[in-house]
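Lecture 7 notes: from sequence to structure.
We start with the chain below.
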Amino acid sequence: MEYGYKNTIAEEDLCDIRRLDRSEENGARLARAWADEEVRAHASFWRALAKAYWRQYVIAGLNELSAATLNLMQPAILQQLIKWVVSQSTSSPQPYSRAFAFSFLLFAASCLQSLFIQHYFQLVFETGAHIRAATQVTMYRKSLRLSSQARGAKSIGDIVNLMSVDAQKFYILARAGHALWSGPLQLVIAMSLLYRLVGWSMLAGVAIMVAIAPMNTIVAHFLGKYGVAQMEARDERMGITSEIIENMKCMLSRIHTFTLEAS
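Predicted structure tokens for the same chain:
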């Protein structure tokens, strides 16, 4: 920080990128998985991605499961601690060692949960970035081998959006993918714990969630609809921008030729 305050940070001052984070490494990794997939009768790009990055993503899922378990354990430990406090006003109070044990368990569970959840985020962010880089490299290599007919079917704007916006969606999916199983699991366990504490009164919370679900569906529908319209506008903008640049190049070339002929 002191060096950066006194000097301008240049590229040579930065650390080298790890080999597994480099675009060429991830592109080759996905290319090997896709080569194995092409042998199948019905090749699937999703299977190729899973084969290339499943190990790191599964480890992230185990961290998420551990963090979710510890998160749900803390209310149970706190409940036992409250019972100890209540017992101190009765004729048979629980020993102080029990309070110290539950306090330590609550502290340890909170610390371990933080470690697991941070490791989970680190892994899913890395996996998402690797998948995005590998997808961009794959599409770039494919764009270099397009035939004339294929180039006519896809504009430059379409290809650029595929390599930037659509590849970014793989990154977002990798970050939120584990929520598909973690969210419902935590919801079911939390509802079970609430039922043990308050009984059937917990159905009030369930009713609110059910009532909000249609609203969320409507909002998601409109977001998807306007997202498609935004992508189409971006494709059109990229096409117009590319055409303007090509016309500018052509005009500059003609001006340069006219200048040479005049001189």
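Points to note: The chain has a mean pLDDT of 83. The longest helix spans residues 203-262.
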